[in-house]
Write a structure and sequence with these properties.
The protein has about 550 residues and is of the alpha+beta class. It contains nine helices and 28 strands. Strands 1, 3, 6, 8, 9, 10, 11, 12, 16 and 26 form a ten-stranded mixed sheet that branches. Strands 2, 4, 5, 7, 13, 14, 15 and 27 form an eight-stranded antiparallel sheet that branches. A two-stranded antiparallel ribbon has the order 17-25. α6 packs antiparallel against α7. The longest helix is centred in the C-terminal third of the chain and has 26 residues. The radius of gyration is 38 Å and the shape is flat. About 25% of the residues are buried.
Length: about 550
């Protein structure tokens, strides 16, 4: 047996590591990485073993296709999985194209569907340790939650002065498609520092990696920064205007005068019923048979509008209305004048930025692995056909081959399932089912036929669904209001100085009252639309039912 000096063993191990494919650094233009997920991902992709990542990844077919992908299988979980590349890809020279497909089979209300392109990790790092702290070079893909709806493009860059890595976020990124079809996302980085974001092969955003208008924070730091040691002088006056110190309040300025005063010219309308209450006990109401005076207290009849008040200008104690006070001036303030001591808004002096540097192009980090590290409230997110290449044409060929057919099929199926013009969608059917249940509520019996008529109109014209829903809600809320508070008629006021208008108004009020009586059975929604009274009154109005408990 050949003996070997043990001192050579570490050197040989180091040489083996250097010869490993995982450490071969190649230009993106010289290599193409492609993951189709046609076969099980296990062995190639390593799920994180960190405690936070409970989500289970599965190898599943896309709905309606024979094409497999990497599936997010559970709701409300964190997921993390990574695949190390056979060759480390250097994005510095030539073009870099990142592309992948994702299908939100159950939609996406809150969660991410982006990829992280990891830079080489520290010595001893294991894929099973992948988490949100694992350093990446580029992050790209959809993210949606609440007000956030964007296709991220973020790159991390090392500041050559400070040595710190800084995330640079694309400003005004495109939005994520809201449907459940398969979409393909492409990011193209070119040697002229341009990045283009494509969705389904269509350019949605173009930006410059060095531009402060396109990325935040800007890659190139400002040459100068505010001096953190500089302080504003105590006597620095930033007020452009000041109250005139020589101004005096006029002697006739009354700060206590009210904004409104009683209109002394107003007179009580003829026929006003001072001794009549606006509401009376319902003469048709009877004490329920199951009313227990000891348990429920003394029974009181529900209140209804006083019919005498409907025919008169008003009921109850009449009070004069108010009007704007011509003598009102409010609190007096001195007029503003230019401040003679004004020095402008203070700013600290600028000093050279110790972290400033200049670059002709970004020094992007190599890509050693692809990771998916997301938190999502939805399942059914399917990742597929992940591609890294240096040739934009290659990316286009893959889109044509792997994505276009699926997308077309999904769109055709979606068009078939969509209702024809005049037909109800599944969502609209649910709305009308709820409206029919509302129509059967007992205290809406007086309006049941009207509500059903509205619903039937909506079913014939589905585009009116929202309007019909609003109309029924108006009826419902108006009735509830009537039950709780009853109807009150606003008093009408006549002005002494306008006798002709008074007579005209009185005649109009009478005509309005007659017209209201004739139209008692008109649609409540039409009353709301035309600006009539917000309450449904008349013989059809449902009486208010209530129980009164007397304290003992």
């Amino acid at each position: 047996m050949v003996s070997m000096d043990r001192r050579w063993i570490p050197l040989l191990l180091a040489l083996l590591c250097l010869m490993s494919p995982l450490n071969v650094l190649v230009s993106a233009s010289e290599s193409t990485f492609y993951e189709s997920f046609d076969e099980s991902f296990e062995g190639r992709w390593i799920a994180s073993q960190k405690e936070d990542y409970k989500g289970v990844w599965k190898h599943e077919k896309s709905n309606g296709h024979e094409d497999y992908g990497l599936l997010v299988s559970e709701v409300a979980k964190k997921y993390a999985i990574v695949r190390e590349l056979p060759e480390i890809i250097d994005p510095k020279d030539g073009s870099l194209v990142l592309q992948y497909e994702v299908r939100l089979q159950n939609g996406l209300e809150c969660g991410g569907a982006y990829l992280k392109y990891l830079r080489p990790q520290e010595a001893g790092w294991k894929p099973a340790e992948f988490d949100n702290e694992s350093p990446y070079s580029i992050m790209f893909g959809p993210d949606k939650c609440g007000a956030t709806n964007k296709v991220h493009f973020i790159y991390k860059h090392k500041n050559p002065k400070s040595g710190e890595y800084v995330e640079h976020h694309l400003k005004y990124p495109p939005s994520t498609p809201s449907d459940k079809r398969t979409h393909v996302y492409t990011a193209i980085l070119t040697p002229d520092n341009q990045v283009r974001i494509l969705i389904d092969g269509e350019e949605k955003k173009k930006a410059n990696l060095l531009s402060a208008d396109d990325f935040e924070p800007a890659l190139i730091p400002p040459k100068t920064i505010p001096d953190p040691e500089d302080k504003k002088p105590e006597d620095w006056d930033e007020r452009a205007k000041i109250p005139d110190p020589d101004a005096k309040k006029p002697e006739d300025w009354d700060e206590d005068a009210p904004m409104e005063i009683e209109d002394l010219e107003a007179v009580k309308p003829e026929g006003w019923l001072d001794d009549e209450p606006e509401e009376i006990d319902d003469p048709e109401a009877t004490k329920p048979d199951d009313w227990d005076d000891e348990e429920d207290g003394e029974w009181e009849a529900p209140k209804v509008s006083n019919p005498k008040c409907d025919e008169a200008p008003g009921c109850g104690e009449w009070t004069r209305p108010t009007k704007s006070n011509p003598d009102y001036k409010g609190k007096w303030y001195a007029p503003m004048i230019d401040n003679p001591n004004y020095k402008g808004i203070w700013k600290p002096q600028q000093i050279p930025n110790p972290e400033y540097f200049e670059l002709e192009k970004p020094d992007l980090e190599p890509i050693a692995a692809i990771g998916i590290e997301i938190w999502t409230m939805q399942d059914g997110i399917l990742f597929d056909n992940i591609l890294i290449t240096g040739d934009e044409k290659v990316a286009g060929e893959y889109r044509e081959k792997t994505w276009k057919g699926k997308f077309s099929t999904e769109k055709e199926e979606e068009d078939v399932e969509s209702p024809l013009p005049g037909e109800l969608s599944g969502f609209q059917k649910k709305i009308f089912d709820v409206l029919y249940k509302i129509a059967n509520i007992p205290f809406l019996d007086a309006y049941k036929l009207k509500i059903i008529d509205l619903i039937e109109q909506g079913e014939k014209k589905p585009n009116l669904t929202i309007g019909i829903l609003v109309a029924v809600l108006v009826v419902l809320l108006t009735t509830i209001y009537k039950l709780l508070f009853g109807g009150k008629k606003q008093p009408k006021v006549e002005l002494k100085s306008q006798p002709d208008q008074d007579a005209s108004a009185s005649e109009n009020n009478k005509e309005d009252s007659d017209r209201a009586t004739e139209n008692e059975s008109s649609d409540a929604a039409e009353k709301e639309k035309s600006g009539d009274e917000n309450e449904i009154e008349g013989e059809d109005a449902a009486p208010r039912q209530r129980r009164v408990r007397r304290e003992t």
